[in-house]
C-alpha cells in the first residue's frame, strides 16, 4: 500500500537511515535513539499528491512509526518475541528479512522445560492407587464374563465383546505403565504386575517392554523405529502382494499386532519371544525367557479351558475380546 501511494505521488522511497549492522553497537552511542516523546508527539508534514483521485486529500501521516534500529545488547531476544519496541510481533520483520519457518529446526524449548511445567504432584507414584486400578479392572473383567456366560444371549454377546475388549485394553495400558516405570517406584512390583496383566492377554511383558523402549527412543525414524513407522520404498518393494494387502488395507492393519509380536515389522528379523533376537542385548535374555514362559503358561491355561467349557464358549468369552483389544491398540497408535 505504501509503495502504491508513493508511486502515485511521484515520490521515491527514502533510503534506510539506520541500517542494521551485523554486529552489536556501542550502547553509549545509541542513547540518542531513545525518546521520551509519545507517538502522537512525533508527526510528519502532510504531503499533497497530484491526480484526480487524490485531489484535496491529505496524505500526511497522523501517527509516526518507530524507526527500526539495531537493538542494544540483550534486547535482540526480547524484540524477536514481542516485536519492534514492544509493538506488534515479528511477522513483518521475518518477511522483511526473508526468513521462513523451518520444520526441521529444533523447537524453541527443551524437554526439561516441559517437565518443569508439569505440576509436582503429577510426578508422585502411588503404588496403592495404582493397585486399586488393577483390582477394579480385574473385577470388572470377571464380572462381565460371568454376566455374559449366565445370560448367553446373542443380543448380549456383541455388547459383551465391545465392553470386554475395552477392558482387555485397560489391562494392557496398566501393564504398559508398569513397563514405563510409572506404575510405582518398585521395579519388582512393576515386573510382577506387568507379567500378570500382559500375560493374561497374551503379550510377552519384557519382550514388549524392551521393544517399546526402542520405539520411544527412535520415534518416527524410518530405519531405527521398532513399530508404527513408515516403510522405506526399498522395503515396500520387497513385500509380496499378500503382505501389502494385509498391511495397508483396512481393517487388517488394525488386527496385525499379534503377528507383529511373533515376527516384528517388515524388514526386521527376530521375535519378541526369542531371547537371541537382535531386539535384545545379552543381559536382557533372562527377562525375555521369563516373559515367554509366562505367556506359554497362559496359552496352556486357555487350551485347558477350551476342553472344560468348549472351544466355542472360549472363543466368545476370550477370543473375540482379545481381537477387539488389539483393534483398540492399533487404532489408537495409528
From TrEMBL:
Any one GO cellular component localisation term in the record: membrane
Indicate where this protein resides in the cell.
Answer: Membrane
This protein's pathway reads: Lipid metabolism; polyunsaturated fatty acid biosynthesis
Biological process (GO) annotations held by this record are:
unsaturated fatty acid biosynthetic process
Task: Please give the superkingdom of this protein's source.
Answer: Eukaryota
* Residue span(s) of domain Fatty acid desaturase N-terminal: 1-146
Which Pfam families does the record match to this protein? DUF3474, FA_desaturase
* Chain positions covered by the region annotation Disordered: 82-103
State if RNA-binding is listed as a keyword.
Answer: no
Keywords associated with the record? Fatty acid biosynthesis, Fatty acid metabolism, Lipid biosynthesis, Lipid metabolism, Membrane, Oxidoreductase, Transmembrane, Transmembrane helix
Report the GO molecular function annotations.
oxidoreductase activity, acting on paired donors, with oxidation of a pair of donors resulting in the reduction of molecular oxygen to two molecules of water
Looking at the UniProt entry, the stretches that span the membrane are 133-151, 288-308
Compositional bias annotation for Low complexity: 82-91
InterPro entries linked to this entry = FA_desaturase_dom, FAS_N, Fatty_acid_desaturase
Q: Which family does it belong to?
A: Belongs to the fatty acid desaturase type 1 family.
Q: What's the protein here called?
A: Fatty acid desaturase domain-containing protein
Amino acid at each position: 500500500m505504501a509503495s502504491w501511494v508513493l508511486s502515485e505521488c511521484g515520490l521515491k522511497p527514502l533510503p534506510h537511515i539506520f541500517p542494521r549492522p551485523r554486529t552489536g553497537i556501542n550502547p553509549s552511542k545509541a542513547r540518542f535513539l531513545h525518546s521520551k516523546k509519545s507517538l502522537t508527539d512525533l508527526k510528519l508534514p502532510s504531503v499533497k499528491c497530484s491526480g484526480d483521485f487524490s485531489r484535496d486529500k491529505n496524505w500526511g501521516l497522523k501517527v509516526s512509526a518507530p524507526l527500526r534500529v539495531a537493538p542494544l545488547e540483550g534486547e535482540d531476544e526480547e524484540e524477536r518475541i514481542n516485536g519492534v519496541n514492544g509493538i506488534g510481533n515479528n511477522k513483518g520483520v521475518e518477511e522483511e528479512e526473508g526468513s521462513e519457518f523451518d520444520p526441521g529446526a529444533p523447537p524453541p524449548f527443551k524437554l526439561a522445560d516441559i517437565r518443569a511445567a508439569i505440576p509436582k504432584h503429577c510426578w508422585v507414584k502411588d503404588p496403592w492407587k495404582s493397585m486399586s486400578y488393577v483390582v477394579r479392572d480385574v473385577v470388572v473383567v470377571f464380572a462381565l464374563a460371568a454376566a455374559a456366560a449366565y445370560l448367553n444371549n446373542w443380543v448380549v454377546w456383541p455388547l459383551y465383546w465391545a465392553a470386554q475388549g475395552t477392558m482387555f485394553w485397560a489391562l494392557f495400558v496398566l501393564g504398559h505403565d508398569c513397563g514405563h516405570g510409572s506404575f510405582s517406584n518398585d521395579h519388582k512390583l512393576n515386573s510382577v504386575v506387568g507379567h500378570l496383566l500382559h500375560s493374561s492377554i497374551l503379550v510377552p511383558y519384557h519382550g514388549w517392554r524392551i521393544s517399546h523402549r526402542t520405539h520411544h527412543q527412535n520415534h518416527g525414524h524410518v530405519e531405527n523405529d521398532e513399530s508404527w513407522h513408515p516403510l522405506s520404498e526399498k522395503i515396500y518393494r520387497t513385500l509380496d502382494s499378500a503382505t501389502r494387502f494385509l498391511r495397508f488395507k483396512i481393517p487388517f492393519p488394525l488386527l496385525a499386532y499379534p503377528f507383529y509380536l511373533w515376527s516384528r515389522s517388515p524388514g526386521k528379523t527376530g521375535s519378541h519371544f526369542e531371547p537371541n533376537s537382535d531386539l535384545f542385548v545379552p543381559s536382557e535374555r533372562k527377562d525375555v525367557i521369563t516373559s515367554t514362559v509366562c505367556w506359554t503358561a497362559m496359552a496352556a491355561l486357555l487350551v485347558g479351558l477350551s476342553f472344560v467349557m468348549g472351544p466355542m464358549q472360549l472363543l466368545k468369552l476370550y477370543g473375540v475380546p482379545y481381537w477387539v483389544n488389539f483393534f483398540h491398540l492399533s487404532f489408537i497408535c495409528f
